[in-house]
Amino acid sequence: MKVVDETLLDRARDHAVRFLSRLPDRRVGVTATRDELLAALRVPLTAPGEPASDVIDALATGAEPGIMACAGPRYFGFVIGGSLPVREWLLDLFDLPRSSGLGFATGCQMANYTALAAARHGVLRRVGWNVEEEGLQGAPRVNIVAGAEAHVTIYGALRYLGFGTRGVQRVEADEQGRMRPEKLKELMQHLNGPTIICAQAGNVNSGAVDPMREIAGIAHKHDAWLHVDGAFGLWGRASAQHRTLLDGVELADSWATDAHKWLNVPYDCGIVIVRDAAAHRASMTTTAEYLEQTDGKERDEFDWAPEFSRRGRGFTVYAALRHLGRNGIEALIDRNCAQARQFAEILGRDPRVKILNDVVLNQVLVRFGDDDATTRTVISNVQKEGTCWLAGTTWHGVAAMRISVSNWSTSSEDVERSAAAILRCIPA
Ligand SMILES: *Cc1c(COP(=O)(O)O)cnc(C)c1O
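# pyridoxal-5'-phosphate complex -> structure
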Protein backbone atom coordinates (compact mmCIF):
# COMPACT_ATOMS: atom_id res chain seq x y z
CA MET A 1 0.00 0.00 0.00
CA LYS A 2 1.16 3.51 -0.75
CA VAL A 3 2.18 4.94 2.62
CA VAL A 4 3.29 8.39 1.52
CA ASP A 5 1.05 10.48 -0.67
CA GLU A 6 3.03 13.66 -1.22
CA THR A 7 0.21 15.50 -2.95
CA LEU A 8 -1.94 15.04 0.17
CA LEU A 9 0.77 16.30 2.48
CA ASP A 10 1.36 19.27 0.14
CA ARG A 11 -2.32 20.01 0.14
CA ALA A 12 -2.54 20.01 3.95
CA ARG A 13 0.62 22.12 4.07
CA ASP A 14 -0.85 24.65 1.63
CA HIS A 15 -3.93 25.05 3.79
CA ALA A 16 -1.73 25.49 6.86
CA VAL A 17 0.51 28.08 5.18
CA ARG A 18 -2.50 30.04 3.95
CA PHE A 19 -4.04 30.00 7.40
CA LEU A 20 -0.85 30.96 9.23
CA SER A 21 0.11 33.75 6.85
CA ARG A 22 -3.30 35.34 7.29
CA LEU A 23 -3.12 35.16 11.09
CA PRO A 24 -1.56 38.60 11.75
CA ASP A 25 -4.31 40.41 9.84
CA ARG A 26 -7.20 38.07 10.14
CA ARG A 27 -10.19 38.87 12.25
CA VAL A 28 -9.30 37.25 15.57
CA GLY A 29 -12.75 36.07 16.49
CA VAL A 30 -14.80 33.48 14.67
CA THR A 31 -17.04 34.49 11.78
CA ALA A 32 -19.44 31.56 11.77
CA THR A 33 -21.98 30.52 14.34
CA ARG A 34 -21.94 27.08 15.80
CA ASP A 35 -24.93 26.09 13.68
CA GLU A 36 -23.27 27.37 10.52
CA LEU A 37 -20.17 25.34 11.28
CA LEU A 38 -22.19 22.26 11.98
CA ALA A 39 -24.08 22.74 8.74
CA ALA A 40 -20.78 22.75 6.88
CA LEU A 41 -19.22 19.79 8.66
CA ARG A 42 -22.13 17.64 9.72
CA VAL A 43 -22.39 15.32 6.76
CA PRO A 44 -23.55 11.72 6.95
CA LEU A 45 -20.81 9.14 7.40
CA THR A 46 -20.94 7.49 4.01
CA ALA A 47 -20.34 3.85 3.28
CA PRO A 48 -17.70 4.31 0.52
CA GLY A 49 -15.86 7.16 2.23
CA GLU A 50 -14.49 10.21 0.43
CA PRO A 51 -11.16 10.99 -1.24
CA ALA A 52 -8.66 12.14 1.38
CA SER A 53 -7.96 15.34 -0.59
CA ASP A 54 -11.66 16.27 -0.46
CA VAL A 55 -11.79 15.64 3.27
CA ILE A 56 -8.73 17.84 3.85
CA ASP A 57 -10.30 20.63 1.77
CA ALA A 58 -13.69 20.26 3.43
CA LEU A 59 -12.17 20.31 6.88
CA ALA A 60 -9.90 23.27 6.16
CA THR A 61 -12.57 25.42 4.54
CA GLY A 62 -15.46 24.21 6.67
CA ALA A 63 -13.73 24.71 10.01
CA GLU A 64 -11.84 27.90 9.16
CA PRO A 65 -14.66 30.35 9.99
CA GLY A 66 -14.99 28.70 13.39
CA ILE A 67 -11.33 28.85 14.29
CA MET A 68 -10.41 31.51 16.76
CA ALA A 69 -7.06 32.99 15.71
CA CYS A 70 -5.57 31.96 19.04
CA ALA A 71 -2.17 31.35 17.44
CA GLY A 72 -2.14 35.00 16.33
CA PRO A 73 -0.67 38.08 18.01
CA ARG A 74 -3.87 39.59 19.34
CA TYR A 75 -5.55 36.67 20.93
CA PHE A 76 -5.91 37.15 24.66
CA GLY A 77 -8.63 34.69 25.52
CA PHE A 78 -8.83 30.98 26.00
CA VAL A 79 -9.61 27.95 23.90
CA ILE A 80 -12.56 25.61 23.63
CA GLY A 81 -13.86 23.39 20.88
CA GLY A 82 -16.69 21.13 19.78
CA SER A 83 -16.95 17.72 18.18
CA LEU A 84 -20.60 16.89 17.61
CA PRO A 85 -20.52 15.10 14.24
CA VAL A 86 -17.71 12.79 15.39
CA ARG A 87 -19.70 11.88 18.47
CA GLU A 88 -22.71 10.92 16.36
CA TRP A 89 -20.62 8.93 13.89
CA LEU A 90 -18.83 6.97 16.62
CA LEU A 91 -22.00 6.06 18.51
CA ASP A 92 -23.48 4.93 15.23
CA LEU A 93 -20.42 2.95 14.20
CA PHE A 94 -20.16 1.14 17.56
CA ASP A 95 -23.96 0.94 17.72
CA LEU A 96 -24.09 2.26 21.28
CA PRO A 97 -26.94 4.30 22.81
CA ARG A 98 -27.17 7.51 20.77
CA SER A 99 -27.86 9.69 23.81
CA SER A 100 -24.60 8.65 25.50
CA GLY A 101 -22.01 11.17 26.59
CA LEU A 102 -18.73 11.06 24.65
CA GLY A 103 -15.40 12.62 25.39
CA PHE A 104 -11.86 12.57 24.03
CA ALA A 105 -8.99 11.79 26.37
CA THR A 106 -5.27 11.20 25.88
CA GLY A 107 -5.70 7.44 25.58
CA CYS A 108 -7.61 4.49 26.87
CA GLN A 109 -5.98 4.87 30.27
CA MET A 110 -7.72 8.19 30.75
CA ALA A 111 -10.86 6.99 28.98
CA ASN A 112 -11.07 4.17 31.55
CA TYR A 113 -10.46 6.74 34.28
CA THR A 114 -13.24 9.00 33.00
CA ALA A 115 -15.73 6.16 32.58
CA LEU A 116 -15.01 4.87 36.08
CA ALA A 117 -15.38 8.39 37.49
CA ALA A 118 -18.84 8.48 35.90
CA ALA A 119 -19.48 5.01 37.36
CA ARG A 120 -18.41 6.21 40.79
CA HIS A 121 -20.80 9.13 40.48
CA GLY A 122 -23.62 6.90 39.22
CA VAL A 123 -23.50 4.10 41.79
CA LEU A 124 -23.00 6.47 44.74
CA ARG A 125 -25.76 8.81 43.63
CA ARG A 126 -28.15 5.86 43.72
CA VAL A 127 -27.46 5.54 47.45
CA GLY A 128 -27.72 9.26 48.03
CA TRP A 129 -24.03 10.16 48.15
CA ASN A 130 -22.66 13.09 46.19
CA VAL A 131 -19.08 11.99 45.59
CA GLU A 132 -18.02 15.16 43.77
CA GLU A 133 -18.90 17.24 46.81
CA GLU A 134 -18.27 14.84 49.68
CA GLY A 135 -15.42 12.81 48.26
CA LEU A 136 -14.92 9.17 49.17
CA GLN A 137 -14.13 9.72 52.83
CA GLY A 138 -17.11 8.45 54.73
CA ALA A 139 -18.85 7.31 51.55
CA PRO A 140 -20.69 3.98 51.37
CA ARG A 141 -18.26 1.28 50.30
CA VAL A 142 -18.20 0.60 46.55
CA ASN A 143 -17.50 -2.97 45.44
CA ILE A 144 -15.08 -3.11 42.53
CA VAL A 145 -15.16 -6.26 40.42
CA ALA A 146 -12.79 -6.95 37.51
CA GLY A 147 -11.87 -9.88 35.32
CA ALA A 148 -8.63 -11.58 36.33
CA GLU A 149 -7.05 -10.31 33.11
CA ALA A 150 -8.23 -6.71 33.25
CA HIS A 151 -5.71 -4.34 31.68
CA VAL A 152 -3.26 -2.59 34.02
CA THR A 153 -4.80 0.77 33.16
CA ILE A 154 -8.01 -0.29 34.94
CA TYR A 155 -5.93 -0.54 38.11
CA GLY A 156 -4.34 2.83 37.35
CA ALA A 157 -7.77 4.38 37.05
CA LEU A 158 -8.95 2.77 40.29
CA ARG A 159 -5.94 4.23 42.07
CA TYR A 160 -6.56 7.75 40.77
CA LEU A 161 -10.21 7.50 41.77
CA GLY A 162 -9.45 6.64 45.38
CA PHE A 163 -10.68 3.07 45.23
CA GLY A 164 -7.25 1.56 45.57
CA THR A 165 -6.36 -1.78 44.08
CA ARG A 166 -6.19 -4.21 46.99
CA GLY A 167 -9.93 -4.51 47.44
CA VAL A 168 -10.65 -5.34 43.79
CA GLN A 169 -12.56 -8.62 43.53
CA ARG A 170 -11.07 -10.53 40.63
CA VAL A 171 -13.19 -12.91 38.65
CA GLU A 172 -11.40 -15.96 37.28
CA ALA A 173 -10.75 -16.01 33.53
CA ASP A 174 -10.91 -18.93 31.11
CA GLU A 175 -8.09 -20.25 28.91
CA GLN A 176 -8.57 -17.40 26.41
CA GLY A 177 -8.53 -14.75 29.14
CA ARG A 178 -12.30 -14.15 29.22
CA MET A 179 -14.11 -13.46 32.48
CA ARG A 180 -16.06 -16.57 33.55
CA PRO A 181 -19.69 -15.47 33.92
CA GLU A 182 -20.59 -18.32 36.28
CA LYS A 183 -17.84 -17.10 38.64
CA LEU A 184 -19.16 -13.55 38.42
CA LYS A 185 -22.64 -14.81 39.23
CA GLU A 186 -21.33 -16.61 42.32
CA LEU A 187 -19.41 -13.56 43.51
CA MET A 188 -22.32 -11.19 43.00
CA GLN A 189 -24.46 -13.27 45.33
CA HIS A 190 -22.17 -12.25 48.16
CA LEU A 191 -21.91 -8.55 47.34
CA ASN A 192 -24.24 -5.86 48.60
CA GLY A 193 -24.39 -2.17 47.88
CA PRO A 194 -22.93 -0.03 45.08
CA THR A 195 -20.94 -2.16 42.65
CA ILE A 196 -18.85 -1.47 39.55
CA ILE A 197 -17.89 -4.33 37.23
CA CYS A 198 -14.99 -3.91 34.82
CA ALA A 199 -15.20 -6.15 31.76
CA GLN A 200 -13.02 -6.25 28.68
CA ALA A 201 -13.55 -6.32 24.93
CA GLY A 202 -10.17 -7.27 23.50
CA ASN A 203 -7.71 -8.98 25.85
CA VAL A 204 -4.36 -7.25 25.37
CA ASN A 205 -2.70 -10.60 24.67
CA SER A 206 -5.28 -12.89 23.07
CA GLY A 207 -7.80 -10.37 21.72
CA ALA A 208 -10.56 -12.37 23.45
CA VAL A 209 -13.80 -10.61 24.39
CA ASP A 210 -15.61 -11.27 27.69
CA PRO A 211 -19.04 -12.92 27.21
CA MET A 212 -20.74 -9.57 27.42
CA ARG A 213 -24.41 -10.47 27.14
CA GLU A 214 -24.22 -12.87 30.09
CA ILE A 215 -22.12 -10.47 32.14
CA ALA A 216 -24.53 -7.59 31.44
CA GLY A 217 -27.47 -9.76 32.53
CA ILE A 218 -25.77 -10.48 35.86
CA ALA A 219 -24.73 -6.84 36.32
CA HIS A 220 -28.23 -5.54 35.68
CA LYS A 221 -29.82 -8.06 38.00
CA HIS A 222 -27.68 -6.65 40.81
CA ASP A 223 -28.03 -3.02 39.75
CA ALA A 224 -24.27 -2.85 39.19
CA TRP A 225 -22.52 -0.48 36.75
CA LEU A 226 -20.88 -2.37 33.90
CA HIS A 227 -17.81 -0.80 32.29
CA VAL A 228 -16.11 -2.18 29.17
CA ASP A 229 -12.45 -1.57 28.37
CA GLY A 230 -12.43 -1.90 24.59
CA ALA A 231 -9.20 -0.11 23.74
CA PHE A 232 -8.89 -1.87 20.41
CA GLY A 233 -11.59 -4.54 20.61
CA LEU A 234 -14.52 -2.13 20.47
CA TRP A 235 -13.66 -1.42 16.83
CA GLY A 236 -14.79 -4.95 16.04
CA ARG A 237 -18.32 -3.53 16.36
CA ALA A 238 -17.75 -1.74 13.05
CA SER A 239 -17.40 -5.08 11.23
CA ALA A 240 -20.34 -7.33 10.36
CA GLN A 241 -17.98 -10.29 10.47
CA HIS A 242 -16.79 -9.57 14.00
CA ARG A 243 -19.88 -8.03 15.55
CA THR A 244 -21.16 -11.34 16.97
CA LEU A 245 -17.96 -11.60 19.00
CA LEU A 246 -18.96 -8.31 20.62
CA ASP A 247 -22.61 -9.14 21.09
CA GLY A 248 -24.05 -7.58 24.24
CA VAL A 249 -21.37 -4.91 24.51
CA GLU A 250 -24.13 -2.39 23.88
CA LEU A 251 -25.77 -3.40 27.19
CA ALA A 252 -22.96 -1.92 29.30
CA ASP A 253 -23.04 1.46 31.04
CA SER A 254 -19.70 2.83 29.87
CA TRP A 255 -17.03 2.09 27.28
CA ALA A 256 -13.44 3.15 26.74
CA THR A 257 -11.55 2.85 23.48
CA ASP A 258 -8.67 4.30 21.52
CA ALA A 259 -8.65 6.01 18.15
CA HIS A 260 -4.84 5.98 18.11
CA LYS A 261 -4.77 2.21 17.98
CA TRP A 262 -7.02 0.71 15.35
CA LEU A 263 -8.27 3.88 13.67
CA ASN A 264 -4.60 4.76 13.05
CA VAL A 265 -4.85 8.44 14.02
CA PRO A 266 -1.79 9.91 15.78
CA TYR A 267 -1.24 9.74 19.54
CA ASP A 268 -2.89 10.89 21.78
CA CYS A 269 -6.52 10.04 21.21
CA GLY A 270 -8.69 7.96 23.52
CA ILE A 271 -12.47 7.94 23.56
CA VAL A 272 -14.85 7.55 26.50
CA ILE A 273 -18.55 6.84 26.11
CA VAL A 274 -21.07 6.81 28.96
CA ARG A 275 -24.71 5.75 28.64
CA ASP A 276 -25.81 8.12 31.42
CA ALA A 277 -24.60 11.38 29.89
CA ALA A 278 -25.62 13.31 33.01
CA ALA A 279 -23.43 11.12 35.22
CA HIS A 280 -20.58 11.51 32.72
CA ARG A 281 -20.82 15.27 32.73
CA ALA A 282 -21.38 15.55 36.49
CA SER A 283 -18.20 13.57 37.15
CA MET A 284 -16.04 15.72 34.87
CA THR A 285 -17.51 19.21 34.74
CA THR A 286 -15.69 21.93 36.56
CA THR A 287 -18.12 24.70 35.77
CA ALA A 288 -21.13 23.51 37.72
CA GLU A 289 -20.21 20.91 40.30
CA TYR A 290 -23.47 19.07 40.20
CA LEU A 291 -25.28 19.66 36.94
CA GLU A 292 -27.59 16.77 36.26
CA GLN A 293 -28.99 18.23 33.08
CA THR A 294 -27.16 18.45 29.82
CA ASP A 295 -29.07 20.19 27.09
CA GLY A 296 -26.92 18.44 24.47
CA LYS A 297 -26.54 21.66 22.50
CA GLU A 298 -23.77 23.81 23.81
CA ARG A 299 -20.79 21.60 24.36
CA ASP A 300 -17.52 22.29 26.11
CA GLU A 301 -14.99 19.48 25.73
CA PHE A 302 -13.74 19.93 29.26
CA ASP A 303 -17.10 18.79 30.60
CA TRP A 304 -16.50 15.29 29.20
CA ALA A 305 -12.85 14.50 29.93
CA PRO A 306 -10.33 15.18 32.68
CA GLU A 307 -8.23 17.86 31.01
CA PHE A 308 -9.11 21.52 31.13
CA SER A 309 -6.77 22.78 28.40
CA ARG A 310 -6.44 20.40 25.54
CA ARG A 311 -5.66 20.12 21.88
CA GLY A 312 -8.49 19.50 19.43
CA ARG A 313 -8.46 15.71 19.30
CA GLY A 314 -11.70 15.22 17.46
CA PHE A 315 -10.54 16.54 14.12
CA THR A 316 -8.16 13.69 13.28
CA VAL A 317 -10.95 11.25 14.07
CA TYR A 318 -13.33 13.31 11.94
CA ALA A 319 -10.94 13.24 8.99
CA ALA A 320 -10.17 9.51 9.31
CA LEU A 321 -13.82 8.48 9.65
CA ARG A 322 -15.02 10.70 6.84
CA HIS A 323 -12.28 9.52 4.50
CA LEU A 324 -12.67 5.81 5.26
CA GLY A 325 -16.45 5.72 5.49
CA ARG A 326 -18.19 2.74 7.08
CA ASN A 327 -16.88 0.40 4.43
CA GLY A 328 -13.31 1.58 4.79
CA ILE A 329 -13.37 1.11 8.55
CA GLU A 330 -14.93 -2.32 8.23
CA ALA A 331 -12.35 -3.27 5.58
CA LEU A 332 -9.51 -2.11 7.85
CA ILE A 333 -10.76 -4.23 10.76
CA ASP A 334 -11.47 -7.27 8.61
CA ARG A 335 -8.17 -7.01 6.75
CA ASN A 336 -6.08 -6.81 9.93
CA CYS A 337 -8.00 -9.72 11.47
CA ALA A 338 -7.46 -11.79 8.32
CA GLN A 339 -3.77 -10.90 8.47
CA ALA A 340 -3.60 -12.10 12.09
CA ARG A 341 -5.09 -15.42 10.93
CA GLN A 342 -2.59 -15.46 8.07
CA PHE A 343 0.27 -15.07 10.59
CA ALA A 344 -1.15 -17.91 12.69
CA GLU A 345 -1.56 -20.09 9.62
CA ILE A 346 1.96 -19.59 8.23
CA LEU A 347 3.72 -19.81 11.58
CA GLY A 348 1.51 -22.66 12.84
CA ARG A 349 2.53 -24.85 9.90
CA ASP A 350 6.06 -25.06 11.30
CA PRO A 351 6.45 -27.95 13.78
CA ARG A 352 8.64 -25.78 16.04
CA VAL A 353 5.80 -23.29 16.52
CA LYS A 354 2.68 -23.34 18.67
CA ILE A 355 -0.15 -20.81 18.39
CA LEU A 356 -1.41 -20.30 21.95
CA ASN A 357 -4.70 -18.44 21.43
CA ASP A 358 -7.84 -18.67 19.35
CA VAL A 359 -7.22 -15.92 16.81
CA VAL A 360 -10.59 -14.15 17.06
CA LEU A 361 -9.44 -10.60 16.36
CA ASN A 362 -6.05 -9.06 15.51
CA GLN A 363 -3.90 -10.75 18.16
CA VAL A 364 -1.67 -13.80 17.80
CA LEU A 365 0.31 -15.43 20.61
CA VAL A 366 3.18 -17.60 19.46
CA ARG A 367 5.44 -19.98 21.31
CA PHE A 368 8.66 -21.48 19.94
CA GLY A 369 10.19 -24.78 21.02
CA ASP A 370 9.53 -26.23 24.45
CA ASP A 371 10.95 -23.64 26.78
CA ASP A 372 10.63 -19.94 27.51
CA ALA A 373 14.27 -19.37 26.57
CA THR A 374 13.72 -20.36 22.92
CA THR A 375 10.74 -18.02 22.59
CA ARG A 376 12.66 -15.13 24.14
CA THR A 377 15.60 -15.80 21.84
CA VAL A 378 13.36 -15.70 18.76
CA ILE A 379 11.83 -12.38 19.86
CA SER A 380 15.23 -10.85 20.48
CA ASN A 381 16.55 -12.21 17.15
CA VAL A 382 13.56 -10.77 15.27
CA GLN A 383 14.05 -7.36 16.86
CA LYS A 384 17.71 -7.42 15.80
CA GLU A 385 16.99 -8.77 12.32
CA GLY A 386 14.85 -5.77 11.43
CA THR A 387 12.26 -7.03 8.94
CA CYS A 388 9.49 -6.59 11.50
CA TRP A 389 9.19 -5.69 15.15
CA LEU A 390 7.13 -7.31 17.84
CA ALA A 391 7.44 -7.93 21.52
CA GLY A 392 7.17 -10.66 24.08
CA THR A 393 4.62 -11.27 26.78
CA THR A 394 3.81 -13.84 29.41
CA TRP A 395 0.68 -15.81 28.68
CA HIS A 396 -0.72 -18.00 31.43
CA GLY A 397 2.70 -18.56 32.88
CA VAL A 398 4.70 -19.13 29.71
CA ALA A 399 6.74 -16.82 27.49
CA ALA A 400 5.06 -15.90 24.20
CA MET A 401 5.56 -13.68 21.20
CA ARG A 402 2.74 -11.19 20.87
CA ILE A 403 1.69 -10.13 17.37
CA SER A 404 -0.80 -7.24 17.09
CA VAL A 405 -1.91 -6.44 13.56
CA SER A 406 -3.45 -2.98 13.41
CA ASN A 407 -1.72 -0.85 10.79
CA TRP A 408 -3.78 0.36 7.81
CA SER A 409 -0.87 -0.09 5.39
CA THR A 410 0.02 -3.69 6.27
CA SER A 411 -0.40 -5.96 3.25
CA SER A 412 -0.53 -9.75 3.09
CA GLU A 413 2.96 -9.59 1.51
CA ASP A 414 4.14 -7.78 4.65
CA VAL A 415 2.73 -10.65 6.69
CA GLU A 416 4.46 -13.24 4.48
CA ARG A 417 7.78 -11.39 4.69
CA SER A 418 7.49 -10.96 8.44
CA ALA A 419 6.45 -14.56 9.09
CA ALA A 420 9.39 -15.79 6.99
CA ALA A 421 11.75 -13.56 8.98
CA ILE A 422 10.33 -14.87 12.27
CA LEU A 423 10.85 -18.48 11.17
CA ARG A 424 14.42 -17.66 10.09
CA CYS A 425 15.05 -16.35 13.61
CA ILE A 426 14.34 -19.68 15.33
CA PRO A 427 17.68 -20.95 16.68
CA ALA A 428 18.87 -24.25 15.18
C1 LIG B 1 -3.74 -0.10 25.07
C2 LIG B 1 -4.75 -0.50 26.07
C3 LIG B 1 -5.12 0.36 27.12
C4 LIG B 1 -4.42 1.66 27.39
O1 LIG B 1 -4.57 2.55 26.35
P1 LIG B 1 -3.65 3.85 26.20
O2 LIG B 1 -4.18 4.48 24.97
O3 LIG B 1 -2.25 3.38 26.07
O4 LIG B 1 -3.86 4.68 27.41
C5 LIG B 1 -6.16 -0.04 27.94
N1 LIG B 1 -6.77 -1.22 27.77
C6 LIG B 1 -6.44 -2.08 26.79
C7 LIG B 1 -7.19 -3.37 26.65
C8 LIG B 1 -5.42 -1.75 25.89
O5 LIG B 1 -5.10 -2.59 24.90
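# post-check
The longest helix spans residues 314-348.
The two ends are 34 Å apart (CA to CA).
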